[in-house]
Design goal:
The protein has 11 helices and 13 strands. With 345 residues, it is an alpha/beta fold. It has a 7-stranded parallel sheet with strand order 3-2-1-4-5-6-11, sandwiched between helices. Helix 6 links the parallel strand 5 and strand 6. Helix 1 runs parallel beside helix 2, helix 5 packs parallel to helix 6 and helix 9 crosses helix 11. Bound molecules: uridine-5'-diphosphate-4-deoxy-4-fluoro-alpha-D-galactose. Uridine-5'-diphosphate-4-deoxy-4-fluoro-alpha-D-galactose (UFG) binds next to helix 7 and strand 8.
Length: 345
Amino acid sequence: MKKKILVTGGTGYIGSHTTVELINSGYEVIIVDDLSNSELSVLDGIEKITGIKPGFVKFDLCDRERLMQFFEDEKNITAIIHFAASKSVGESVQKPLKYYRNNLVSLINLIEGMQQHNVTRMVFSSSCTVYGQPDTLPVSENAPVKPAASPYGNTKQISEEMLQDVLSSDEILHCISLRYFNPIGAHPTGWIGEHPMGKPENLVPYVTQTAIGLRSHLRVFGIDYHTPDGSAIRDYLHVVDLAKAHVAAINRMLEGKQKDNYEVFNLGTGKGYSVLEIIHTFEEATGVKVKYVITDRRPGDVEKVWADTTKANRELGWYAKSSLAEALVSAWKWEQYYRKNYRKP
Ligand code: UFG
């Protein structure tokens, strides 16, 4: 019998790509998502790619009773990958309580549900935002956690601390927190990808929406950073590589290979690119021009960050394989597919 993985937030951007990789690796997937920031049509994309439609149940994980009922109904969940969370840095500054409630109450409910129903393994979606602007680069898992720059970032820090506390009081539970750098791109088929509701905050969706004519121009937030071309540097990794890291983390847990019941891994490529390099690589790889203007820095942005991936390479046996150009081409393929089939520009 296939092992069943609960993927919370499985219709979201990283969740949907991870669902595909889990199915391709022989797992059964059941998704729980409240569709607050995703669309049901994602399930069709997953089915088109894998030939299998994952299970899907719609509810909000903050609804404790509903979640407990779910655990009663689904008796044989082997492990959980917990993506479901609000993730807009800007919105979190405007509506902090929404973030503290959504991201923390759902995690508390989920852990309690696991404890009561003997589900012992969880992979948690965290972020490199916990490092702030690191003192040394590349940044390793041992780098100190810096004060959060946004309520969103704070929810990730608090979640990790909460998990650590719970896991030191409960040796049966096992968890791996994955700290993502900047996930970009889409499935190479172009059948699933990122579809931000409203105006995108992140760079690559803004680039593809500008390229397709939905936005008049891209703003480059600052070219006065201490970097070779003055624009800020990030570690952009292909979402399919990122999805595969989740499968590696699940395998590690289920094979009993964890060295501690709470582990943390950085997931990035180990290489940084500037905003201007992203634009120019996109233009070269797709042949489409992107109109941009230079504006002031965006408050809260760090200057440069990229990952030390040694630990993930060694312990998970995982490497980010795709090039930046491949990731950008896939994002462009998805943007065109999405506008043609779902939302016209
Ligand atoms: N940028 C622009 N113009 C845009 C959008 C972004 O110039 O329209 C720049 C940003 O200033 C930054 C880079 O592109 O230098 C990347 O910005 P993103 O918003 O794509 O990504 P961030 O690095 O700001 O944010 C990501 C995740 C967050 C996470 C954060 C931690 O999206 O969830 O990393 O650093 F909290």
